[in-house]
């Protein structure tokens, strides 16, 4: 029988995962604001800026499946510690970048370093939390990203003006290295015992090949790709858009960008609670409807008559995206056996990271091709939102594949 202290260690685990995801999100979110000064200092064109923003996601995407497999094979603790240390080193090196090519290489390696954190964290949540608490646990961890969406633009834009973008990268990386020690002493793998198997029922060992034969996994992969194409498109280019098209100063951009992020914090936490309570099947229909609403509000954003309405529409987009993100990424934690959940979530999250590779780069090329107009970029994001809706509408939870019925609820 597990001791009460060990049983309740899950709360320590989720707080550590929350803090780790906070550090990682600050490091990569800050680049979306730093790129304004970096582009000037290194004399980057619009298309080169898009390539730089995408280079992180290329490395990040490559590490999703390997990171999940490593967590399933060796435990999530070791993989998370290595991930935090690696991305902290490359955060420091981001401040050393001296040219377009050096920046691409450093950000690519940064992505490789950070890429295994999320699938390993998914493994940790599946190990420590029972099924009926996993959406809430996942939403709590991911809320750190939305909180960083509030803090980063405010602190980042002000600090850029005070101490410069290079120094901020040095400080953020140093903090990450210090946190690596914290994880070394307090992060724990949970050993599989008879008790933990009752609390976290396994449905049999399966391979990634088996998982990929399950249609729902591909629906979730496509939906996650599409919703994150919208997410990363907005996050990567909104600061530049607000400066160049809406003619805001850098400080104003920081405060305006924080408004949707605050809405996202509330939506992310609420979504985890609601999803743990909703009947199976209905959650995916609701998410599909929300994806259609995202497309509607993206259109309204593009033609918002003033910055206030723009922030309102972007906040609504963020609220609906938050629900869909939590649904898609927590579904495998409830559908699949614990032994393969790290690999499965790594595969699904690869879709999101491919979106991170493609979307910022595509927007950069489109804006340059259309003489600085962002209209076509908004149209592209609207199409991605509709793709997410279509993929979620096609999910039929009750239509199980006979040979893999042990995988799907």
Description:
The chain is 80% helix and 0% strand. Helix 8 crosses helix 15 and helix 13 runs parallel beside helix 15. The chain is built from 17 helices and no strands. This is MFS transporter. It is found in: Cell membrane. It holds the Pfam family MFS_1.
Q: Quick summary of this structure?
A:
Keywords: Cell membrane, Membrane, Transmembrane, Transmembrane helix, Transport. The chain contains 17 helices and no strands. It has 409 residues and is mostly helical.
Tell the overall outline.
globular
Tell me the β content: under 5%
- Runs in which pLDDT lies below 50 for 5 or more consecutive residues are 194-204, 399-409
The CATH topology: Growth Hormone, Chain: A
Query: How many structural domains in the coordinates?
Result: 1
Q: What's the end-to-end separation, in Å?
A: 29 Å
Protein name: MFS transporter
InterPro entries: MFS, MFS_dom, MFS_Na/Anion_cotransporter, MFS_trans_sf, Sugar_P_transporter
GO cellular component, one term: plasma membrane
Organism: Psychrobacillus lasiicapitis
Keywords:
409 residues; mainly alpha; Growth Hormone, Chain: A; 17 helices; 80% helix; disordered C terminus; MFS; cell membrane; MFS_trans_sf; MFS transporter; membrane
């Amino acid at each position: 029988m597990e001791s009460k202290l060990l049983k309740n260690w899950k709360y320590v685990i989720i707080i550590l995962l929350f803090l780790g995801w906070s550090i990682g999100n600050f490091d990569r979110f800050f680049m979306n604001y730093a790129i304004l000064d970096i582009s000037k200092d290194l004399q980057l064109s619009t298309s080169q800026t898009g390539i730089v923003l995408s280079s992180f996601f290329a490395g990040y995407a490559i590490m999703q499946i390997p990171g999940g497999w490593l967590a399933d094979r060796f435990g999530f603790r070791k993989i998370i510690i290595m991930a935090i240390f690696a991305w902290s080193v490359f955060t420091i090196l981001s401040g050393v970048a001296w040219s377009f090519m050096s920046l691409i290489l450093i950000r690519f390696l940064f992505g490789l370093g950070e890429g295994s954190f999320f699938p390993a964290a998914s493994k940790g949540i599946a190990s420590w939390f029972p099924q009926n608490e996993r959406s809430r646990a996942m939403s709590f961890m991911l809320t750190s990203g939305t909180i960083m969406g509030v803090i980063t633009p405010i602190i980042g834009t002000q600090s850029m003006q005070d101490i410069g973008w290079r120094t901020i990268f040095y400080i953020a990386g140093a903090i990450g290295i210090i946190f690596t020690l914290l994880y070394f002493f307090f992060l724990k793998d949970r050993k599989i015992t008879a008790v933990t198997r009752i609390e976290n029922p396994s449905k049999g060992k399966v391979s990634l090949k088996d998982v990929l034969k399950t249609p729902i996994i591909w629906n979730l992969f496509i939906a996650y790709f599409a919703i994150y194409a919208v997410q990363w498109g907005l996050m990567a280019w909104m600061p530049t858009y607000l400066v160049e098209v809406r003619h805001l100063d850098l400080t104003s951009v920081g405060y305006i960008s924080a408004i949707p992020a605050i809405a996202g914090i509330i939506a992310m936490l609420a979504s985890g609670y609601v999803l743990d309570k909703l009947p199976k099947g209905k959650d995916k229909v609701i998410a599909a409807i929300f994806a259609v609403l995202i497309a509607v509000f993206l259109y309204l954003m593009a033609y918002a008559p003033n910055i206030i309405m723009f922030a309102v529409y972007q906040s609504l987009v963020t609220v609906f995206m938050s629900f869909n993100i939590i649904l898609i990424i927590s579904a495998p934690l409830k559908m699949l056996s614990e032994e393969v959940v790290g690999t499965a979530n790594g595969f699904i999250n690869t879709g999101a990271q491919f979106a991170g590779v493609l979307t910022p780069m595509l927007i950069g090329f489109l804006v340059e091709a259309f003489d600085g107009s962002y209209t076509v970029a908004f149209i592209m994001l609207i199409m991605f939102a509709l793709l997410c809706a279509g993929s979620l509408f096609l999910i039929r939870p009750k239509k199980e594949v006979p040979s893999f019925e042990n995988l799907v609820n």
